[in-house]
């Protein structure tokens, strides 16, 4: 599967002048932005109360050992908080929207959480809970959107995996058949389908890769994944030509006529999935804007800003081996540490838990204990859930906005080298 995707990406690598693009866009931003913008970000983030990693064993000895294994005391606190929050979440879900099937705010997101907990803790009861919520999601499909997080691909793919784990092959195959019925409409871009993660082709592509990863085999033929990748490449080339951006990048993408940069709707999310390094659009603070040309240095979220861009930069470092990309990713980590405890709350999309995943990504890539330390500190913040005066999200118990996402992160912290930002990180 991956070899086929790499062949596709040779088309991109052979034409992309990333360094030229980086110089051009950074020169533009340096001319149009000023260093006062961090003060604006302070209005959206709470002051980080924690002392940063100082390089001494005493700094981390109450959190993890020299191999990165959490101490029994700290791991016990995390497990205890997971159980506490699960109880609160289940009670809160009684009033959730019964028609929301999605992974982002609905039943599929809760199914994904329990599927993850079954992996981490090996308890059959969690897999049964995943089945309960996956079955509920199949009863209220959108019939409109096709993506993993906000459409029908998520419920179908998640249910297929749950049925597979429970050794119910006929039901799993039925879900896969229905998932693949969406394939050609996605390739054709029916309904002016965009390319981004939440509502576009990348969101469907993730569902296909998710199936193969979870089944541990090529359930989805490489050819079908190749066709989606080719459609995304063709779409990016078309917009780049229309904008006359070919000298800067052969690929360019927009969503609702906006040139988004972040992971959810923008360039970094698409480039990350295509293993394509991005535009290098960055503020003097080290953060990234929500859109190309947007001079407001405001958002330090996974969906918009440095916490989502870090994954693209780390992937670029893997592919190209250039230290510049790692340096940029490390700078993203500094931004997250300073401004990542958000007044918006503790969630994944725009909250402390989602931002902490950036530290886990850096830790997996570098092995440096500083990043695991920072993730643990953000976890401590999350374990004081509700005590910081943060805003209550619209869907307070969901995976991407609410409590379920915080639980997902805390469970991942118990196995940091195996952690993955849900429905995004490969």
UniProtKB/TrEMBL annotation:
Reaction equation(s) it catalyzes: RX + glutathione = an S-substituted glutathione + a halide anion + H(+); 1-chloro-2,4-dinitrobenzene + glutathione = 2,4-dinitrophenyl-S-glutathione + chloride + H(+)
The keyword Methyltransferase is annotated on this UniProt entry: no
Membrane topology classification: Peripheral membrane protein
GO biological process, one term: carbohydrate metabolic process
Coiled-coil residues: none
Keywords assigned by UniProt, alphabetized: Cell membrane, Cytoplasm, Membrane, Metal-binding, Transferase, Zinc
Record's keyword annotation contains DNA-binding: no
Protein's name according to its UniProt entry: Glutathione S-transferase LANCL1
């Amino acid at each position: 599967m991956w070899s086929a995707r790499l062949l596709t990406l040779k088309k991109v690598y052979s034409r992309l002048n990333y360094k030229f693009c980086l110089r051009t866009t950074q020169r533009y931003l340096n001319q149009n932005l000023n260093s006062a913008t961090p003060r604006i970000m302070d209005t959206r983030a709470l002051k980080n109360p924690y002392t940063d990693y100082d390089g001494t064993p005493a700094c981390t000895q109450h959190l993890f050992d020299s191999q990165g294994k959490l101490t029994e005391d700290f791991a016990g606190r995390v497990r205890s908080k997971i159980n506490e929050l699960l109880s609160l979440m289940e009670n809160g879900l009684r009033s959730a929207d019964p028609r929301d099937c999605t992974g982002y705010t609905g039943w599929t997101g809760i199914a994904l959480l329990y599927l993850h907990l079954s992996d981490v803790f090996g308890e059959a009861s969690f897999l049964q809970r995943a089945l309960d919520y996956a079955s509920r999601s199949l009863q209220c499909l959108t019939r409109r959107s096709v993506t993993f997080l906000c459409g029908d691909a998520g419920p179908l793919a998640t249910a297929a995996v749950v049925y597979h784990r429970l050794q119910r092959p006929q039901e799993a195959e039925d879900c896969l058949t229905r998932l693949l019925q969406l394939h050609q409409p996605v390739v054709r871009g029916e309904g002016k389908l965009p390319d981004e993660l939440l509502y576009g082709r990348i969101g469907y592509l993730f569902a296909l890769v998710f199936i193969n990863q979870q089944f541990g085999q090529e359930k989805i033929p490489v050819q079908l994944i190749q066709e989606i990748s080719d459609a995304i490449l063709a779409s990016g080339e078309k917009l780049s030509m229309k904008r006359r951006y070919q000298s800067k990048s052969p690929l360019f993408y927009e969503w609702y006529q906006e040139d988004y940069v972040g992971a959810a709707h923008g360039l970094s999310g698409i480039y990350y999935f295509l293993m394509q390094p991005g535009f290098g659009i960055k503020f003097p603070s080290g953060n990234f804007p929500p859109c190309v040309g947007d001079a407001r240095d405001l958002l330090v979220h996974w969906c918009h800003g440095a916490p989502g861009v870090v994954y693209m930069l780390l992937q670029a470092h893997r592919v190209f081996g250039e230290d510049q990309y790692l340096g940029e990713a490390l700078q993203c980590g500094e931004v997250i540490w300073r401004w990542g405890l958000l007044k918006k709350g503790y969630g994944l999309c725009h909250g402390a838990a989602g931002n902490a995943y950036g530290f886990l990504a850096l830790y997996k890539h570098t092995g440096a204990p500083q990043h695991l330390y920072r993730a643990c500190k953000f976890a401590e913040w999350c374990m004081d859930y509700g005590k910081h005066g943060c805003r209550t999200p619209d869907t307070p118990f969901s995976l991407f906005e609410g409590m379920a996402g915080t639980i997902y992160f805390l469970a991942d912290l118990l196995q940091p080298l195996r952690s993955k930002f849900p429905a995004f990180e490969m």
